[in-house]
Give the backbone structure.
Amino acid sequence: MNIQPGRMTQTRRTSSARRDPDFGRQFARVMKVVLCLVLISSVLVIHIYMNQRIAETEAQIRAVRQNISRVRTEITNLRNRKEEYCSPEFVRRQMGRFGLNLVPAEPGQVRLMSVLPSSQARRLAVQMEQRSPVIAADSFRRPVPGRQRFGSMSRD
Amino acid sequence: MRGKLIAVWWFPLAAFLIFRFFHVQVVRHDYYLGEARVRYTASRTTTGKRGEIFDRSGYLLVGNSPCVEIFCTPANLPENSRRGVAVICAKHFGKPAMWYFRRLAPTIRKKGSDGVEKEVPSLYFMINRQTPLETAESFKRELVRFFQTEKEKAAQKTTARHFPRGFIAYRNSSYRTYPKGRLASNILGYINVVNDSAVPQGGLEKELNRDITPEKGREIYERTRDGIPLDYGYRKFTGGRDGKDVYLTISEPVQAILEEELDAAYAKWRPETIYAAIADPATGEILALAQRPTFDPGDRSSFDPAAVRTRIAEDSYEPGSVIKPFSIGKALDWGVVTPGTVIDCEKGRWIYLKRPLTDSHNYDKLTVAGVIQKSSNIGTAKVALTLGKERVYEVLKTFGFGEKTGLPFPLESRGYLPRPKRWDGLSITRFPIGYGIRVSPLQLLRAYCALASNGDLPELRLVDRLVDTATGKETKNPPKIIRRTFMNPAAHRQLVDMMITVTEPGGTATKAAIPGYRVAGKTGTSRKYVPGKGYSRGAYFASFVGFVPAYKPRLVMLVTFDNPKGASYGGTIAGPVFSRAASRILKYWNVPPDHIPEKSGKKK
C-alpha cells in the first residue's frame, strides 16, 4: 500500500527549498569561493603567462644582443681591413701595381703659397727646377685646374 | 551526500594545489628559477680585449681581430673518427693531416712523478688558435656533417654513433693585428703567446702592458648537456674590463714619409743602422720615430735581433759636431763671445796637451759664426776652453745630456757624460765637439727642441692619452717644459742665425736646404770607436739635426747613419734625407714658405 499520497512527490520536490531556506545564500557563498578560485587561478595564469612573455622577451633581447655583438665583430674586422688598405705601404704597393706615377704637390700647386713676394716665387721656381727638373717643370708650367699659379698669386 | 563528499575531498585538494602552485610560481619563483639555473648554467673566466694603439689622429696602429680558438679533448674522440677529423683539420688549418692525426691520439705518454713513462688520456689539444670567424664556422659545419654521415652510415648497421660528447670546444678570442705592417714597428713592439697568455715583447706593448692588459672577469651562461653555451641562452658577466686604448703623439702620415725616405737612403748608403726622429719643438711631441733595419710584426720571418730592438732609444753614440751649437750657444748667452769674435783655427791643426786636434779643412781665422758654419773643431774647442770645464759640463747637463728622456722604453739609454772631476785634460776640447761622450738620438732630439723653441727644453712625449673604453675616461699626458736653457733671447736668435748659414751656400749642409724655407741645423760626422782598436778610419756616424722653418719651427728632425758605405759626411748623407722628408711634411701640413730676402740667397 502506497501510504504516500500521489502529490507527495510534488510536496517533496518543493519541500527541499522550504527545508533549506539559505540555499540561495549558500549557493552565493560557493559561487563567491569559486569566483575567488577563478580569480586566483586567473591571476596565476596571467602571472605565469607574463613570466613566460618575460622569458621570451629576454631571449629576444639576448638574440638582439648576440646580433649586435656579431655586427660589432664584423665592424671590427672591416675597420681592421680598412686600416690595412689605408696603410702607406699598401697604397704604395697598389700604386706600383697599377703604374700610377703620382707625385706629391709642389709649392706652386698649393694655394697657401700666395704669401710669397713675386721675386721670391720666381727664384723658388728656378731652384725647384734645378733640384728636380721633371717634377718641378711639370708642376710649375702646367696650370692646375681651379688653382692659380705661383707668380700670379703673389702679393706684390 | 556524494556531492558533499566530493566537495570535502576536492576543495581542499584543489585549494592546496592552487596554493602550492601560487607558492611555487609566484612567491618562490625567483628562488626556483635560480635553483634551476644552477643546474643548467656553467661559468668560465673571460678576458676582455687588450687595449688598442692609435696615432694622434685616431688611425689604428695596433688592433685586435676577433677570432675563435678551437681546442678539443682527444680522449673523447672515437678512434674510428680520428682520421676523418684529422683530414678536416688539415683542410681548414693548413698543417698536414698526419700532424693532426698524431695529436688527436686518445692517449699520450707522460712521465709520472716516479719518473716512469706511462700512457695517460689526452685531455687537451689546441687545434687552431687564431681562427678567422668564417673558417671556424666552415670547420664547425663540416665537423657536424662528418659525424651526421657517420651516424647515418652506422644506423644502417648495428649501433648509431653521435657527435662525440665533450670532444670539441670553441672559444671567442682575439689576436693582435698590425694593419700598418712595418710602420713604427720598433716603437710599438709585438706580442708572443705563451701558455695561452699574451706576453709583450719590447716597445710600447711591453712598457704600457699594465694599462692595456684587460682584467679577467667571470661569465655565467646557459649550457647544453655537453657544456656548450647556448647561443640565445642566459648570460651574465661579472667583473672584467677591457684594456685601455692608447693614443700616441705619432702622426701616421709623417711617420710614413720619414720611413719612405729612410728606406731609399738605406738602400743607397747601406749603413748598419739609421736612426731618425721628428718632434714638435713647442710641445716635445714625437711625431715620428723610425730606424732601419726594422721588422714586420705580422711576418715572423723578418725578425732579426738587431732589427727588433728599439735601438733609437737603447743605443748611444759619440755624436760629433751636432753637439757644437750647445757650447757656442751658451757662450753667446753668457756673453763670453759674440758672433763676430774671431778665433784662430790654426790652419786646421792644433796641438793641445801634446795631442793634435784637426779640422776637415785648413781654416786660418774664423768668426764664431764661421766656426758653426764650417764646423770647426779647433774653433769650438777654443770657445770651450774659454768657458772652462765646469761651465761646459753645466751646458751639456742643461740640455739634458746624461739623463733619460723619460719616454716609455724600458731599456732607454742614459748616454755617458762623466762629472768634471773625472775629466782628463783633453776632455774640455773633446766633449764640446762630440767625442768622449755618448748621447742617445732621443737626447739629441730633445736638446735641439730647446734650440728650436726659444731655449725651452721640453719633456719628450710619445703617449698623448689613455682612454678607458668602458667609461670613456681619458688620462692625459700634458706637455711640460723641463727648464729654460737660454736667458738671453738675443743670443738664442744669433745662434739660430748661425745655424741657418750651415744649410746655405758655404755651409756644411747645403743638401739639407729646402727651397723656400729657412732651415737651421748642424751636421755631425764622428769616427766610430771600436773597442780595443780605437777610433776607426773607415767607419763613421753621419748625422744631421735641424729644424724648419728656422724662426718659427714646426718640426725638429734628427737623421743619423751608423757606418754608411760610399761617403761619410753628415751633410752628404743625412742632409738630403732631412731635406726630402721635411719638404714633403711641410707640404703635407701646408706650411707657407718663409720670406727670404734676395741677398740671403746670394750670400757665399
In short: The helical segments of chain A are 8-19, 23-86, 88-98, 118-131, 133-141, 150-153. Residues 23-102 of chain A form one domain. Residues 23-86 of chain A form the longest helix (64 residues). Residues 133-156 of chain A have pLDDT under 50 and may be disordered.
